[in-house]
Amino acid sequence: MELRLLQTEAERRIFERRMDEARSKRGVGFCESRHSLLARIHMTFGTLYGLFEKNGEPTERMMSGFRMHDLAAIPQSFPRPDMTHLPASTVFECGELWSFSKGAGILARRGAAIVAGLLGARAVLVYPVVHPVDTTQSYIDTKFVKVGEPVWFPFGQVLDGGKLFVQPMVLEGEALEHLTRKVFALGFETIANHSIIRFENPTSLRPSLDRPSLPVASSVVASTPGGPREMNGNAHA
After folding, report:
1. Distance CA 128, CA 167 (A)
2. How far apart are CA 194 and CA 176, in angstroms?
3. CB-based contacts of 85: which residues, under 8 Å, 6+ apart?
4. Lower CB count within 10 Å: N or C terminus of the chain?
5. Does 126 have pLDDT greater than 90?
6. How far apart are CA 144 and CA 169, in angstroms?
7. Each residue's pLDDT tens digit, 67-107
8. At 50, is the secondary structure helix, strand, or coil?
């Protein structure tokens, strides 16, 4: 598997098109609300990664992806939870997770954990959809903690015009460190200052490029520092 940092405007637009397609084709489906600019801010200034089944595949073959940013770069989407006890540059909000299959989504989350670990995250924020469908269980399974009650997500809406609600959740401390150790232990390699991260698919899944997974408004897994090696060319972790 190859996780690739998307650096050009053209790559960002392809990410956005693939995300919109995945979100609209399965489950409740949702889109940005008419007056919202939040997604545009995230797509323009957030750090975007795309996941590919094979090394060097064209950007159009992206099977899943995610966005992340630290709070020193872009403010968090909601005031809750209060993360002012940590330096803003070490707190990462993750979102715009999308995929064309459950398997591709799992692998994207593994990639996100690697990225955040390399960046030295001390806390990770996510805002998974909780209504009209609850997508929080996978985050509970990895020890994310719910912070307060669900909040209305004013920046998006269900395709039928209904309201979206999201659940603020955070992962930090020992739980974050445990997840990082677990993900790093699986092994990976990095190339070009972590702009490309390669790892094996341990599940023998071949995520479909045609069947999108259940959408989430703003959610992804991430982690803390570890000890991978920087590679300057093709190699195996």
Report:
1. 6
2. 20
3. none
4. C
5. yes
6. 6
7. 999 999 999 988 889 999 999 999 999 988 889 888 888 89
8. strand
CB 132 within 8 A of CB 161: no
Region of 187 on the Ramachandran plot (φ > 0 left; ψ -120 to 50 alpha; else beta): left
The model's pTM: 0.79
Q: Please report the DSSP string for 192-236 in residue order.
A: TTTTEEE---TT-----SSSPPPP-SB-----------EESSS--
Task: Report domain extents, the chain.
Answer: 2-231
Q: Which residues pair with 198 in a beta bridge?
A: 2, 189
Residues forming beta bridges with residue 152, ordered by sequence position: 165
Q: Does domain 2-231 have CATH number 3.40.630.30?
A: yes
Instruction: Return the closest-CA partner of residue 159 out of 66, 4, 31, 33.
Output: 31
Is the distance from CB of 139 to CB of 90 less than 8 angstroms? no
Residue 170 identity: V
Could you write out the DSSP letters of every residue in 57-104?
A: --GGG--EEEEEEETTTS--SSS-S--TTS-GGGEEEEEEEEESSHHH
Q: From CA 102, how far away is CA 152, in angstroms rounded?
A: 26
pLDDT, tens only, 31-49: 666 676 777 788 888 999 9
Decide: helix, strand or coil at residue 176: helix
Q: In the structure encoding, which two tokens stand for residue 57, read together? A: 């595949």
How many Å apart are CA 113 and CA 123, to the nearest integer? 12
Q: Which residue did the predictor score with more confidence, 163 or 195? A: 195
CA distance 17 to 154: 21
